[in-house]
Amino acid sequence: MTGSVREALSEPVPEATLSRVQTVMRAIEDRIEGRALGPGARLPSVRAFAESMGVSKSTVVEAYDRLAARGAIVSRPGSGFFVAARPEPLSLAAIGPRLDRAVDPVWITRQSLEAGPDSLRPGCGWLPPDWLPEEDLRRALRHVARQSDAVMFYDTPQGHAPLRQQLALRLTERGIRAHPDQLVLADSVTQALDLIIRFLAEPGDTVLLDDPCYFSFQALARAHRLRMVGVPFGPEGPDLAAFEQALIEHKPRFYITNSGLQNPTGATLSPVVVHRMLRLAEMHGTLIVEDDAYADFEPEPGPRLAGFDGLDRVIHVGGFSKTLSTGARVGAIALRSDWVERLVDLKLAVSLSDNHLTAATVHRFLAEGSYRHHLDALRTRLADARGMVVRRLAQAGLSVPFVPSAGMFLWTRLPEGLDAVDVSRRALARGVVLAPGNVFSISQGAASFLRFNVAQCASPRVFSELSRAMEG
Amino acid sequence: MTGSVREALSEPVPEATLSRVQTVMRAIEDRIEGRALGPGARLPSVRAFAESMGVSKSTVVEAYDRLAARGAIVSRPGSGFFVAARPEPLSLAAIGPRLDRAVDPVWITRQSLEAGPDSLRPGCGWLPPDWLPEEDLRRALRHVARQSDAVMFYDTPQGHAPLRQQLALRLTERGIRAHPDQLVLADSVTQALDLIIRFLAEPGDTVLLDDPCYFSFQALARAHRLRMVGVPFGPEGPDLAAFEQALIEHKPRFYITNSGLQNPTGATLSPVVVHRMLRLAEMHGTLIVEDDAYADFEPEPGPRLAGFDGLDRVIHVGGFSKTLSTGARVGAIALRSDWVERLVDLKLAVSLSDNHLTAATVHRFLAEGSYRHHLDALRTRLADARGMVVRRLAQAGLSVPFVPSAGMFLWTRLPEGLDAVDVSRRALARGVVLAPGNVFSISQGAASFLRFNVAQCASPRVFSELSRAMEG
């Protein structure tokens, strides 16, 4: 235990030892990041840690000295090593099981956002530029720039009243009765979900998620330190027996799902499934958060949990990022009247106000009436693309177990023996962002799946690069 | 224990009993909202609860029956009363001590946001419309509407790169060296603080706050279930002996403060105080979050914690809501390079992206160069208003123990014997929003103080209504 920092830095260390040293360092860093070792806490003794890690004492001494050199821990001669007093901030990656970067939800989001303009993104979750109503949106924005107070001031606590009125009408068309006073706006669907999770759960609570599900649900649950329990999800929706079993066994605070055009499978629930899910949720005292971000892709509105439930135990979230623009984001929460004031209190505390400018711009856009035409054209274009992509994927050797009725996603299976993470890594090296199935799977049981966005597959290079990546 | 719901609803109850029943109901509701009684939990027995509340058993039976009638609890004959299975969402008001609405930070925010166009808002925390550079901002927005991709797409994970470059330069002018890669953008200063608190603290951790301090810090700490410890704050800054004592006694995760033009006192720290605070923070292993939202009011930049510290243990937050517009909000976080990736991971998880449109608009506005002229004019106008308001308040009988060098706030004291909450209630009834001192005070030790915004005091009616409210 006498090796000093100076010695550790100057003495050469053989290569084989080095990797063992790094393993020990990583183990200590994990405990510090995960807060198992807080600021000022004493590290395990060199002897004990060497035994528990199955390495030599000198390896542990080397690792501790290097961590001390970095300032992560401090040595107090005679009494051992201690975590440095500067508290370490949260590391999302250190909450829960450590994930391979390739299946880390946050990393995939980062890849999609950072991909250069020349890269291909068949795995990404949004539409390409030329699929969006850019001119109409710019016109709405110019109007707001000329005429609206939204440029200058905070909006009201619940969010832009004219937009809430429009949204209440749109919900009614989908069978969800919500008074404008039951709507609360947030800066995006993701931020709306974040607010709702704070509203419903505390760290350590359990949440039910679909397996597979939209990977941001997992990232949010991780950030909130929730326990995640997966419910197998297929073309018919969640496995209801497994859903009930999970309700009984884990007593989740809430279940979060997409009832229409689920991400990644594209499945839409039937009325009977919606009805049964609600009955089970009621029997077992669970709330449901329904993320309805894909609703506007549907030609005919399908059944919705919030609609059947009458906003009793379901909180509904919608937005426009998928079909209008990701630059001007709005999230709309519909919930029980008697919960509105409390949710707004929480919103005021953590954000003070949502973005007035964006809300007014989306309102103006919707008021102009061109959105319906855009959606009609978009649905047709997606249907055409879907047909083409299904054919091309089949030629490449992938199978599509279920073809959704609408939307942009296809949940596809690679030929036997191929791992989606391997294929995605090879594709990424050639500038193609794929979405490997296990990013969506809590059980990591979707190793042979890939999610495709049919709108991002116009270039024939998507399929040639895919075939190349599959060849290895 | 046999009184049924039906009986409880039909039997008339004497008035005196009724208020006792309501007290018991409120006590149970508090425990349910605060999660001391979770969904499905058994309520205390009627006998035990009657004893502990000092009421008769029939009062408790009445209260339980009424709660059952509302669906908050359920009766299971033979085994007692249980909290209903539908989980209750968070009630911010139920975290920590219950606050009078008049000194509840969230409620004050709500009042200021909801006040009609005709009401006077000398207590509110922002500038009136005609003090802001509306035409210049609209011009910037029109430019973005014509030319920028920001209307349509997500921004990069760290936030708008051109804006981060501008902001890094502005920070340098204030003595804070930060590379653009050390900046992370959020949708507002409040949301930036919310993100940082999640980054640094877990529920149950302790945070140090100034007493008095900006009330949103308290609302945020409450939402995060942090323990709050106050440090007395005066014209020289925090009481350093009390600061050290709190560091030793409470081992806070972090201290949050404004080092320039503190809200509500208007105090700016001297170099020696900044130096000593940093030394104490270092000695005791605490981080500092510096909210610098008022920096642009200063004619000459004062010393900053982040500047002296070199972004080692200080995380710095700035924005433009106070001096540019509250409709187009941006929050900018400057922090240690080695923490950036982790913070961005968290940001991606909980918000996916900040508002591209707003960031691009603020960038364009700053690039046009008129902001400096606006700030010059604003500072002069504020100095004039400050002089006038100090005189008028003195005429009304209030004292101003300290007149800040810049900014919009005055921290003033009512004459002996007057309570600021009483005065504020009477003023609100006549359409005047005041800011009573205890909204800013964790110890509730500022009962005779009021915060004035000198920019919101142009109407002589502010002072006549104030005098009337002081008369009772």
From TrEMBL, chains A, B:
SMART domains named among the record's database cross-references: HTH_GNTR
A GO molecular-function descriptor: transaminase activity
Keywords carried by this UniProt record: Aminotransferase, DNA-binding, Pyridoxal phosphate, Transcription, Transcription regulation, Transferase
Record domain HTH gntR-type: where: 18-86
Protein's UniProt keywords contain Transcription regulation: yes
Pfam families: Aminotran_1_2, GntR
Similarity comment: In the C-terminal section; belongs to the class-I pyridoxal-phosphate-dependent aminotransferase family.
Protein name: 8-amino-7-oxononanoate synthase
Species this protein is from: Methylorubrum zatmanii
